[in-house]
Predict the structure.
Amino acid sequence: MTRTARRRGDRHDATRVDLGREFKAVFPYIMRGRNDSIAYYPIQVDAEPLLAYIEEHKGTESQLSVFEAFLLVLIRILRERPTLNRYFAGRRLYQRRNVDLSFVARRQYTDDASETNVFVSVKPEDDRATILAKIRGEIRVAKSGETKDDEDLIGLFLRLPRGLLRAAVKVVEWWDFYVDTPGFLRGVDPLRCSAYVANLGSVGMGAAYHHLFEWGTCSLFVTIGQIKPTVCVGEDGKPAVRRMVELRFALDERIADGYYDATALNLFDTYLREPAELERL
């Protein structure tokens, strides 16, 4: 995606998209929230090629974890199919300039361990090495136990009495609707992202259907399930056992039509079957 100069009506992270005079122009008025407009897309992907690629490249510069591979696929798809990288704010449609991803990092795998949000902003000019450095750096900071900016901000807000906290949230929502994201939330609020990713497979769970958040600007929520042996139809038409992974997407259908959504999300299957493509981001 090429970077364009900021125009009147743009936001700090996105350019305004003209909705024209078609029926879709009234969508933000008749489907006012993301969960009024939510569409779910489940897909199941053969993980064998990806697992083989990861095993083959262990200890090399191309080494990847499974989760990193999923993030790279998502970034590539959002770059190639940029209509998925849009959001509504103030009943207006915007196209993001960057691909911004959020996900949760658990500091330890224990029942009482704390979790923290990780936010990674990928610019159009970032290559694979830069992207991986950003992802790994942000995860490293999250797991270090250092207090992050979003946690400091939440702590500050939670010191307010309930009445003042409600009023503060209303003021932020009003400013966000009519003006732009307040400066103190930019790059801090994890719900102002292209996609929020939940790696439920890392804790042995299947992919869940998840709602979208009305707060923020996130139009896409992705859940990744556990990779596990599954009986499927083999290439010879006979039953075969393959390691498969289930993905589920919650998407604001106002930003793109169903055909665009389906063809874009089916690219997950393409790129996970051909993981070498991820070397050319």
The helical segments are 27-30, 48-56, 66-80, 128-143, 149-158, 162-178, 258-265, 267-273. The chain has one domain: 19-145+189-279. Residues 162-178 form the longest helix (17 residues).
